Amino acid sequence: MAGGNPLNPEICAQNLGSIVKPFSIVIDASVSSGLSAAVWTPASGKRFRVMSVDASVVVDAVCAATEGTVSLVDNVAGNIFWTLGATIISAPAGTVVRNGGPSLVGTYGYLSLAANNVVKLLFTGPATGKVTVAGNLMGREE
C-alpha cells in the first residue's frame, strides 16, 4: 500500500521521533506548587525536538478544588511550549482528573532554543494535597 499504514513503527519514528522519555513526578502541592523538574536532558551538544506529549494528572491525596496547569518549558527560565490545563477536584486518591492523551506539538514539533537545554515540567495547582503528573515525551535529538 502506497504511503504505508499510519501506525507503522517506521512512519511513527520519522514523524514522532525515535526517543520516548517517560516521566512520573509526584507533587506535594503544599510545598511545591510552581515545581520545575527536568524530564528530558539531551546528550551533550544536542538539542531536543519534542514532537508529541502524552500526559495525565492523577490525585494521590485529596486536593482542594482549584485550577492547575502542567507546562513544558525550554530550560530553567525558557519558553513554555506546551500546556495541559486541569481542574483539580476534591476527589479520592486514584482519580484521574485530566488525561491529556497524545497530542502533537506544532506541525514540526518544538526544537529547543539552544544545545544542552533540558525539557522541564512546570506544575502550578492546589495549595493542598498530592498529585502525580505522568506521561511520555516523544521526539528526537539533533
Characterise this structure.
- The chain is mostly beta strands and 142 residues long.
- The protein has a single domain, classed as Jelly Rolls (Sandwich), CATH 2.60.120.
- The chain has 2 helices and 9 strands, in the order H-E-H-E-E-E-E-E-E-E-E.
- The protein has helices spanning 9-16, 29-32, and strands spanning 19-28, 35-40, 48-61, 66-74, 80-88, 96-104, 110-111, 119-124, 130-141.
- Strands 1, 3, 6, 7 and 9 form a 5-stranded antiparallel beta sheet that branches. A 4-stranded antiparallel beta sheet has the order 2-8-4-5, with no helix packed on it.
- Strand 4 and strand 5 form a beta hairpin.
- It is elongated, with a radius of gyration of 16 Å.
- The chain starts with 8 loop residues before the first helix and ends with a strand.
- Residues 1-13 have low confidence and may be disordered.
Q: Give the number of domains.
A: 1
Task: Estimate the mean pLDDT confidence.
Answer: 75
Helix-strand makeup class: mainly beta
H/I helix tally:
2
Beta-strand residue percentage: over 45%
Helicity level? under 10%
Tell me the Rg in angstroms: 16 Å
Quick one: biggest sheet?
A: 5 strands, antiparallel
Write down the overall geometry: elongated
Distance between the termini: 31 Å
Number of strands: 9
| Quaternary structure annotation | single chain
Low-confidence parts lasting 5 or more residues at pLDDT below 50? 1-13
Q: What do we call the CATH topology?
A: Jelly Rolls
Gross CATH architecture: Sandwich
The string of secondary-structure elements, in order, is HEHEEEEEEEE
What's the CATH class, please?
Mainly Beta
